[in-house]
Structures
1.
Amino acid sequence: MYDVIVIGGGPAGYVAAIRSSQLGLSTACVEEFVDDSGNAVFGGTCLNVGCIPSKALLDSSHRFYEAAGHLDTHGIKIEKVKLDLNVMMDRKDSIVKKLTGGIGGLFAANKVTPITGRGKVIAGNNVEITKSDGTTETIAAKNIIIATGSSPIEIASAEFNNNVVDSTGALEFTEVPKTLGVIGAGVIGLELGSVWARLGSKVTVIEAMDDFLFMADKEIAKDCLKDFKKQGLDIKLGSRLIASKNLKKSVKISYENSTGTEEMEFDKLVVAVGRRPNVQNVFSEDSGVHLDERGFISVDDHCQTSASNVWAIGDVVRGPMLAHKGSEEGVMVAERIAGKHAEMNYDLVPSVIYTHPEIAWVGKNEEELKSENRSYKVGKFPFAASGRALAVDQSTGFVKVISDASTDTILGVHVFGPSAAEIVQQALISMEFGASSEDLGLTIFSHPTVSEALHEAALAVNNQAIHIGNKRK
Ligand code: FAD
Ligand code: NAD
């Protein structure tokens, strides 16, 4: 009997397994995704078809975009730029292979037992493992952690085929589509839409909501929309896909907006309308595990399910579908199983959209604070006034710091601009320690860095920014 069996080896599951083992618990991790030789490949969506391959392509495509005529202001002229998509894809694949292979090494070093097969929680704290040949074996565990992740949502109006693909398909095109339709202007739509637009596709994004990036700060979203349009993304808001037809070499879609029904034809269509939790056949009816009203595995604040000693973490439970959220839940659960009192601070889970420039935020935005009737102060600083941002030719966007009107405690930080993810991370660390905007203002930032924009925005909260004209009272 194991102390812990983790079902699913994505960033939630493999981290939970490693931490459990580090804490002296005998641990196995069950994974059903296999390579050509039938061996389990760990890393889940994130390493195989998510965070890592998408960031590899975002970086490569950005370099191509710059080389192909966007370095003129630096006095760099490149006459003929040629794209070798095979090499670009090979680079992405080799990064994925290196990282997924690395988890095998981490498991060996930490004494986690890898098990290949499909895991299912059955009554009595047992896990039934189904092997690829259909045979089953039952293993008992004192604790079970479900970390089966999520899959792309398929919609009836755009069933997947050779021309209509999900995010995984959009990471594997063998040639650059001349025209690309993207359904959903969410995180995946913007990131993968950007990749193919930079490589030469004419990209149209169809978004059902009237508001662009409804989950982001409104002012930031407005700036981003303007910038993405400038970059060539044709984003059609308030437009809901109603049907699509595969024409063998292209796909025709119809969508509805406030003026009626419109049609468009694309070489390829990416459907990125969200992901659903992998809950099917993951637990038996008598296991004691239940779903919540949205179809996720029902858990409490500590990721405990309704069955004793059965836990669930990552995309398969409530909260944002983010790798770092799942990993931290994995650590928390491993520690609680080991008798510690770990907690997860769900108020400070950062969000990043890896476009160029990046969009990142943590904590509350103005709209949320207004709806809570909370009084707040705002400080903003534009990258156009940052020496380093100008020097690196990335002066679009701004930093916004929001703090409590009476205590000055930082409540939210929102960034659109260079290194937004890293800047928000710095702010987040200070927020974990309960910092005020004055604390950040009193902190020394290296010069010249784009992070100085965070310093100045924090100073601006109390009308003390140095490099913008503060209105004197
Ligand atoms: P998953 O990563 O989905 O892993 C679940 C694992 O469980 C899989 O390996 C699956 O094969 C296995 N499994 C499922 N059922 C069973 C079973 N019954 N038995 C055995 N094994 C099973 N998030 C970020 O934070 N940053 C990003 O930049 C980012 N970029 C993304 C880009 C794309 C294109 C996509 C699609 C997602 C991205 N995400 C990103 C989201 C991120 O990938 C997920 O939030 C994260 O992978 C969830 O981790 P998880 O461990 O819960 O699930
Ligand atoms: P999403 O929820 O971010 O966006 C989906 C979008 O599709 C929404 O804006 C929605 O209004 C729109 N939509 C839904 N149905 C539609 C229809 N019929 N017609 C037109 N538009 C429609 O989902 P996603 O982009 O698929 O991403 C899935 C998850 O993966 C997200 O939860 C995200 O957290 C995660 N992810 C994170 C990152 C990152 O952290 N950088 C990157 C990629 C994915």
2.
Amino acid sequence: MANPSILILAGDGIGPEVMAEVKKIIGWYDAKRGITFDVSEDLVGGCAYDKHGTPLHDDTMAKAQEVDAVLLGAVGGPQYDNLDFSVKPERGLLRLRKEMDLFSNLRPAQCFDALADFSSLKREVVAGLDIVIVRELTSGVYFGEPRGIFTEGNERVGINTQRYTESEIARVARSAFELARRRSNKVCSMEKANVMESGILWRQVVQEIHDKEYPDVELSHMYADAGAMQLCRWPKQFDVIVTDNLFGDLLSDAAAMLTGSLGMLPSASLGAPMANGRPKALYEPVHGSAPDIAGQGKANPIACILSFAMALRYSFDLGDEATRLEQAVEKVLADGVRTADLMGPEGGTPVSTSAMGNAVVAALNASL
Ligand code: IPM
Ligand code: MG
């Protein structure tokens, strides 16, 4: 049987640096566990624009459609700020999401005990936190038509459209309920049904799918603004949160900060099952390209490493190996190894990106 295949799109800024550490982990699985991936690499974002004049070449898009999983680093940088909207680095990422139809974006926010004092919230509020935001990723205001900047009379008007079909809501709701069944069996759905028709439909459809297919799961509904407030007040009341594309973007950044550092959080974007039964999938850290620290060996590779752990679990059916990798990360943090973003109140000497990757490899060795 062919080896499982991975396409690495390291992208811009700190993307290549954090991805270099994931490659060490991939090498470790090959050498020490006999788990061999066919890895290919390509460009996305600003670096793709520099080479091809487009943030995602058609050939790269075609490759992404064929592999078992895509691992993405980060895209963007200030040198691309003035590019035409249609070729901005972010468009490369959005094209991947849309054309691979990755409608279900899992964004876990987990607070490692060793970092509970790093959050801007009190330890008791965040310690032990383990929630997942399921963000709809291929529709809503990110993609709705009409959109654009038009002229009306003597002024310009900027238009975006929030649009959701019933089936788009239903499929992401199902993925949240399925996930909840493997966790604490609890889903909170967030929208703005008090002001938006798309929110009213969202609430109705989530409730219908629940009543027909998942009556065993505990379901609640919350307005997204109140949800943001509750996430800061007492985040442990949640287990799985399901929400639309834009609210999910905002809420997942807020949830990320609860855990102490944006440099810690992985994500999985999943689509419909492929012929082998596994979902089409792209894995990426929640953080961005951090151009201010790029190229300095300061970036925290953990979010990218944990994204690979999610790939092991969701694309390769290697849940035990995913847990091994997550525990290796936990051990490294418990041992006090810290990149610059994890310098808490007590200070200390930060380690480099590559030293953090090496520490995780050492912890993997110790796990054997
Ligand atoms: C994210 C990012 C993206 C988004 C950007 C880079 C297009 O913020 O993945 O959360 O808005 O979805
Ligand atoms: Mg975002």
